[in-house]
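Lab manual, section 2.4: Encoding a predicted structure.

Procedure: take the sequence of the chain (399 residues), apply the prediction step described in section 2.3, and record the output as structure tokens. A sample record is shown.
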Amino acid sequence: MSEWKTLLDNEFDLFEPINLAQSLVRIESVSGGSGENAIARFIANYFIDYGIAVEWQEVESNRANLVAEVQGGLGEGPCILFNGHLDTVPVGSGWKYPPLGGEIVNNRLYGRGACDMKGALAAMIYAAKMISLFAPYLYGRLKLLFVVDEEQDNLGIKKWLEVYKKTQEVVDYAVVGEPTGLNISLGHRGVAAYRVEIRGKSCHAAVAERGINAIYLALQVIEAIQRKNALLRAFEDPDLGSPALSVGVIHGGLAPNVVPESCVFEVDVRTVPEFPLGEVNKLLKELIEEVRETSQIPFEYHLVQSIPHLPPAKIPRSLPIVDLLSRSIAEVPGEIPTFSPFPASCEASFFVEANIPTLIFGPGKIEEAHSANEFVSVTEIVAASRICSLLALRVLGGE
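Recorded output:
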């Protein structure tokens, strides 16, 4: 069959992915809480109702991934995997709309996780239903992997990969449904963090000249980091963006009348293949040494990596899956295939590391994720579901 769009349009219900997204938002699923299993059970029941096979993959006590699969009726063929995470960050404060209400106002679905990433989950869930309708005419398999713990330690994806590597199963392509605004992202930058401690000499503030103010020195280092960011644009990757450094935490001092002996700050770092983590480590040391030299103060410092490095991930534009996704986007009215770097990091790097070519694509904008009054465009949810359906039909339909 070649006219997949026409066939899909005849079956596609515009309201069902919206209703699914509302239901998902109304299930609290903060990372590490009981809601992760609650939302997994809701999705499992939906799949079971439509004859889609499901597997409960235990990660740790009372936390489980949901794995589902639609088998093509024509036998062996490629396998495409749709991935999303079940968990959200905490609800937080400052909400105008109920964070678990699933309210739709002016084409926006509001609620914790609406953008990150229950809109994408709904799009993929409904796409699976659509694929199940056409399964007799398809080859291979559509897999769905919805994991726990993405917002914390990535235990869910690590468990799935542990099992995957022990089997003979092969996944040819994956799509991670993070919010890209329906743009195509070929990967993401790596992420890590460093902890820097600057050590001076304390004394009474009345005779401050006898001490070495660690906060003043730390600020000089921080200003050097800020200046260096502009120069890092020389290493920009057209598909991932530029490497970057950002100071997000600072602590120092005991009291106003004491010259601080110590100041500690933490630096978020974003890496690209042309500027890897080793270069970041080297750069931070150089900046600190420059401050020691220019200040002519022989202060001590301690530099340590405080968050493990999630490496950058990137796939070539020449892969067939990229063209198939582009064509699928182009067939949805009002949408134009657009390539755009995904500014955050996500679990695509785990798939790429396992030699599974992976795209990042989903409804919503990353700027709305984790915020009060988080929302996702209802129109984008529907469009994402149609695009995911067309993509899977093309991959499994022999195009």
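Check your result against the sample. The chain has two domains: 4-187+312-396, 190-310.
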